[in-house]
């Protein structure tokens, strides 16, 4: 009996030791469970106010994923963060030329379109563009054009049909220019029937001189502040993106928008999966969710930009989809180009020439 008691004591000690070891092992395994929980998180890296918040909630409710929404204010800022790594962005929203740059540098995951059945609803007009042939890395999110916003109380539509109309003497001190080397040199290039992606020193120098000649008509060169000037009526004309013009028109019904004939810029913002992705299933679920026509239509109404989702058009007001400045015809888009990613050398050339133009104002 005594030996049995000793044996029982030994067994008890062993059990206690095993229990302690088991507890320590469970503690060591807890981070794995936390990692598992983080797989329920989808981190989206997007421009500010560039998605309907109610759609985010709808996605969370339908899928069980929790969305972590992080914003950036420029393509370059987004590019730098993704390239540095460290933060697991599952979805990002770069513009056309930045998609080109990121795919060339291996910063994007190739898309398996079989996992995005709703891809069939996209308009072919906005697929397979030069910056991402066959959409191996991106899906179009919103699109638009670079054009001219004008106040119809001071400017007649017939007076601004082409880019060259900006150089008319009648607009002395009345035009706001967007502070963008690529956009404004592109305007000057387009006005001379040159590609907005030109890499010709001669053509660029001619374009810069032409912009300097626009100085008498230039009221100011600004960025986002242009909206305030146009909405308040302090300015008559402005070179802006269609989305900006839509925001202006929502606040001032006298603001109209025109897409100049001929060569010009058509922009496309895109959904991509960066190499930083930590939750691919959630990323694909989100891409398919946003490609659903009803969701795309709801998002387009909230954001105010044009959707590339052809299936979404029937869910949008006809007053919107039949407005040819926001949803132009193929004929209107003839000659329009998306920006290509330029080499560092040519990017610097554009920036240097634009600085010279601004110093001349």
UniProtKB/TrEMBL annotation:
Subcellular location(s) of the protein: Periplasm
Please give the biological process terms from Gene Ontology that the record holds: polyamine transport
Molecular function as annotated in GO: polyamine binding
Q: Keyword annotations for this protein?
A: Periplasm, Signal, Transport
Where spermidine binds, per the record, is at: 49, 97
**Pfam families of this UniProt entry?**
SBP_bac_8
Keyword Signal set for record: yes
Name of the protein in its database record: Spermidine/putrescine transport system substrate-binding protein
Q: Which domain of life is it from?
A: Bacteria
An example GO CC term for this entry is: periplasmic space
């Amino acid at each position: 009996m005594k030996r049995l008691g000793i044996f029982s004591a030994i067994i008890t000690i062993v059990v206690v030791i095993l229990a302690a070891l088991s507890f320590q092992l469970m503690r060591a395994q807890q981070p794995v469970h936390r990692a598992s929980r983080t797989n329920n998180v989808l981190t989206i890296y997007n421009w500010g106010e560039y998605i309907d918040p109610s759609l985010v909630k709808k996605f969370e409710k339908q899928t069980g994923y929790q969305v972590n929404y992080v914003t950036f204010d420029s393509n370059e800022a987004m590019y730098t963060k993704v390239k540095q790594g460290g933060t697991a962005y599952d979805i990002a929203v770069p513009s056309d030329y930045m998609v080109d740059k990121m795919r060339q540098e291996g910063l994007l995951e190739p898309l398996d379109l079989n996992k995005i059945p709703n891809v069939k609803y996209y308009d072919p007009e906005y697929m397979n563009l030069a910056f991402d042939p066959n959409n191996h890395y991106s899906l179009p999110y919103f699109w638009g054009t670079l054009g001219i916003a004008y106040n119809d109380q001071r400017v007649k539509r017939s007076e601004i049909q082409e880019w060259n109309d900006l150089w008319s003497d009648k607009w002395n001190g009345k035009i706001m220019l967007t502070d963008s080397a690529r956009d404004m040199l592109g305007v000057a290039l387009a006005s001379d029937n040159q590609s907005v992606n030109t890499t010709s020193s001669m053509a660029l120098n001619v374009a810069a001189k032409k912009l300097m000649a626009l100085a008498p008509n230039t009221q100011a060169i600004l960025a986002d502040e242009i909206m305030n000037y146009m909405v308040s009526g302090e300015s008559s004309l402005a070179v802006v993106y269609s989305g900006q013009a839509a925001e202006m028109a929502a606040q001032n019904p006298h603001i109209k928008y025109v897409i100049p004939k001929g060569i010009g810029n058509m922009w496309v913002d895109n959904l991509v999966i960066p190499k930083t992705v930590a939750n691919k299933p959630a990323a694909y679920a989100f891409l398919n969710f946003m490609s659903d026509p009803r969701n795309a239509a709801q998002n387009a109404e909230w954001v105010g930009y044009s959707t590339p989702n052809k299936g979404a058009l029937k869910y949008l007001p006809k007053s919107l989809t039949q407005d040819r400045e926001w949803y132009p015809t193929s004929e209107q888009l003839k000659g329009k180009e998306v920006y290509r990613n330029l080499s560092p050398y040519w990017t610097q050339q554009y920036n240097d020439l634009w600085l010279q133009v601004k110093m001349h104002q």
